[in-house]
């Protein structure tokens, strides 16, 4: 796939890479940016001529900007993680803010907080800026133990409330639910869209149940600090069996938090029953959390909307293009509706 401009278009994509105090444009041999939702880390790799006076060193700031000829945007902000010098090129690799969280193993206990509070605190520990963060489930306490990285903790906490953790263009951590109702972009099949694949998976699991170590009505109740032998208070849901999946999360100590986590797990599972990939002429604005629909797809392909959890921008001699991995969106696959429905019905599981 060469990533040629749309038919009849005079567009000429361009890319700029800033490494510390040096800015590289036409000198870059190729640039590859991978943006991914947690627990994965976003990365960028730039190949520059071996003779170029590259002064970048680990820890230096990195900014990658992409211009499709129609739109320009910063696609990556991070820091240099490695510099490799070869006979034919100098290769600079960088990680985004998720990399700082992945290097940190905390050992802290938080009391009477919500998931968002802990996420913000862990980001602050390593100097990572924070954008929008959902409050998420209420927690009587949370132990951020060093058996997990801070990034693993952040992804775990966000998943309980159907939030997607990603890094924005400025390098700030975002942890919010993706509504996936309204498309941010509608590239046209045969014009911006160069390739499209859609896969429908089996739907074997009917429900997800998440049980905690206590079954209190609120985190302030004394029972929230005491283990229980009956988290479901006599209303045990079906399973566990082949079609009803259970999971134990000791940190969730209220029935409401368990129900929310179960609904969030079910939402992600259902949204993953139809997945796919898309390759487009460069779309600098796209990143994890973006919502798209495809204009005029041929039958039997569906147009969406889809939400993206992985986006790759590539620029080089082979062409320039954006590829993405998506999951199903739309009103029937709204995480906000799933979690709200669980709270309204008082369900203990998904």
Helix and strand layout, with pairings?
Layout: E1 14-19, E2 22-24, E3 30-36, E4 43-49, E5 61-67, E6 72-85, E7 89-95, H1 97-102, E8 108-114, H2 115-125, E9 130-133, E10 138-144, H3 150-159, E11 164-167, E12 173-176, E13 193-200, E14 207-211, E15 244-248, H4 255-271, E16 274-280, E17 291-292, E18 306-316, E19 319-328, H5 335-345
Parallel strand pairs: 9-12, 14-15
Antiparallel strand pairs: 1-2, 1-5, 3-4, 3-18, 4-7, 5-6, 6-7, 8-10, 11-12, 13-16, 16-19, 17-18, 18-19
Concise summary:
With 350 residues, the chain is an alpha+beta fold. Helices cover 16% and strands 36% of the residues. It is built from five helices and 19 strands.
Descriptive notes:
It is a single chain. This protein has 350 residues and is α+β, with helices and mostly antiparallel strands. The chain is 16% helix and 36% strand. The protein has 5 helices and 19 strands. Strands 1, 2, 3, 4, 5, 6, 7, 13, 16, 17, 18 and 19 form a 12-stranded antiparallel β-sheet that branches. Helix 4 (255-271) runs antiparallel to helix 5 (335-345). The model has no long low-confidence stretch (mean pLDDT 91).
Total number of beta strands: 19
The separation of the N and C termini measures: 41 Å
Helical amount: 10-25%
Overall pLDDT confidence: 91
Poorly predicted runs are none
Structural class: alpha+beta
**Overall form:** globular
Radius of gyration: 22 Å
């Amino acid at each position: 796939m060469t990533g040629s401009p749309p038919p009849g278009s005079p567009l000429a994509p361009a890319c700029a890479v800033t490494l510390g105090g040096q800015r590289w444009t036409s000198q870059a041999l190729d640039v590859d940016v991978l943006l991914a939702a947690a627990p994965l880390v976003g990365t960028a790799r730039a190949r520059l001529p071996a003779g170029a006076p590259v002064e970048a060193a680990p820890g230096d700031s990195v900014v990658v900007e992409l211009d499709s000829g129609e739109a320009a945007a910063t696609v990556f902000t991070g820091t240099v993680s490695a510099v490799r010098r070869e006979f034919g090129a100098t290769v600079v690799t960088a990680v985004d803010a998720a990399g700082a969280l992945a290097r940190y193993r905390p050992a802290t206990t938080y009391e009477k907080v919500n998931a968002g509070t802990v996420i913000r605190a862990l980001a602050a520990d390593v100097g990572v800026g924070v954008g929008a963060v959902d409050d998420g489930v209420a927690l009587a306490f949370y132990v951020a133990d060093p058996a997990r990285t801070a990034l693993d903790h952040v992804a775990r906490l966000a998943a309980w409330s159907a939030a997607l953790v990603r890094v924005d263009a400025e390098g700030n951590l975002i942890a919010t639910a993706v509504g996936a109702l309204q498309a941010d972009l509608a590239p046209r099949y045969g014009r911006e869209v160069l390739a499209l694949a859609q896969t429908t998976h089996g739907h074997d699991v009917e429900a997800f149940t998440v049980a905690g170590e206590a079954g209190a009505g609120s985190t302030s109740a004394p029972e929230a600090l005491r283990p229980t032998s009956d988290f479901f208070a006599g209303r045990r849901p079906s399973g566990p069996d082949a079609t009803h999946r259970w999971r134990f999360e000791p940190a969730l100590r209220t029935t409401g938090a368990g129900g929310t986590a179960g609904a969030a797990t079910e939402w992600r599972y259902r949204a993953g029953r139809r997945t796919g990939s898309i390759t487009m002429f460069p779309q600098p604005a796209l990143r994890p959390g973006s919502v798209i629909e495809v204009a005029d797809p041929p039958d039997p392909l569906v147009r969406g909307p889809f939400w993206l959890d992985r986006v790759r921008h590539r620029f080089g001699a082979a062409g320039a293009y954006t590829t993405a991995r998506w999951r199903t969106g739309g009103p029937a696959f709204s995480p906000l509706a799933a979690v709200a429905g669980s709270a309204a019905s008082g369900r203990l599981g998904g």
